[in-house]
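In this section we turn from sequence analysis to structure. A common task in structural bioinformatics is to predict how a protein folds when a small molecule is present, because the ligand can shape the pocket around it. The inputs are simple: the amino acid sequence and a SMILES string for the ligand, here pyridoxal-5'-phosphate. Study the lines below before reading on.
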Amino acid sequence: MSDIIQGEGLTVFTNPRAAGPDEAYGETRSRILSATGFDSAQAAVRAWPGYRETPLHTLPGLARSLGLGALYCKDEGARFELGSFKALGGAYAVFRLLQKKIAEHHDGYLPGPAEILSGAYRDLIRTVTVTCATDGNHGRSVAWGAQMFGCRCVIFIHASVSEGRRAAIARYGAEVVRVPGNYDEAVRHAAAEAGRNGWTVVSDTTWEGYRDIPVDVMHGYGVMSREIIRQLPEPPTHVLVQAGVGALAASVCAAFWQAWGPERPRFVVVEPEQAACHFASARAGHPQPVHGDLETVMAGLACGEVSPAAWEILSAGANDFVTVADELALEGMRVLAHPRAGDPALVAGETGTSGLAVLLAARNSPRAAAALGLDASARVLLICSEGATDPEIYRRVVGMDATEVCP
Ligand SMILES: Cc1ncc(COP(=O)(O)O)c(C=O)c1O
């Protein structure tokens, strides 16, 4: 029987419903996230102006100090000009939406990114308004995509989204509207406003009757997973992925399962203690919301409800569900900014270091470390999902500007 292991700042639940290593990714899951869906996203995003792979760093010094065999860190702080993997998802879904709108008016013809960027469909695109709720990064991606391809954009943020994150969205020409309540309430608000005004919601979470666009978002994130697969010398033994609604984690899980099959890594889903809806759902055996203000420094993970489509992948694809304390994510930012000998200095925001936070907590929690198999044979992949996306918070936590850490 599976049980919960409590460590210092860390709680581990090993998933009793996890698929065995030999279970194929299979038809059913492919109906949500498919290899061809990842292929299309890869082809489109690589054609966008400014596309470059983000680096995958090897951190031998930190691996040694944590008693691990190897530590890899995918650094999404360098993703386009947005500083997070989110650039890949929301903007790709905007592209797909516009592509389909154009097809409706041009006998099913689906133009590529260069054709849309050429302005050939400008007048039609201008009639489209996209909208979503966001804790910051997703809205920034949707706004950036809307500006890049030329449609209108209205973004809803909830009460606790920082002023820095609001300004970062507005910079891309979107109208930004602050609404009371938490993230999940802002999601409902965006859907209601879209219905009233004839706008299209570009959400990263699915709900009853609304799935295609968030699936595009998840396929967009697959560009990152495909880069990792190409960059790693061999599959890692573990991957720790942070989850808000779970779109990122499900996308990574699907891409690795498709690519590596039985060799795929042990998949660990990481959440803040205050917003652990995947953890709660794994224990319940079905999607289970968590309530409250969901207040956490890991702002991107402040979600109380899993995305049902993501859950269909993670409920079997994740081996462990872990919650971690805020303080350890902040420590993770400082650890990466002050590297061990032989490691590069890295800039990561507070949501970006949640995976590292688990490794830091495991140092003082031998039972949790053993339950997760974090030992000298482990080759661990972390996703540093954002850079200093809020520079003011970064300076306060690390005591330096991001530009001083990585000049
Ligand atoms: C930097 C960062 N990392 C991870 C996540 C989690 O992604 P998801 O909500 O798809 O689980 C988010 C979500 O906003 C984010 O902004």
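The CA atoms of residues 100 and 106 lie 10 Å apart. As an exercise, try to locate the residues that line the pyridoxal-5'-phosphate site and compare them with your own expectations.
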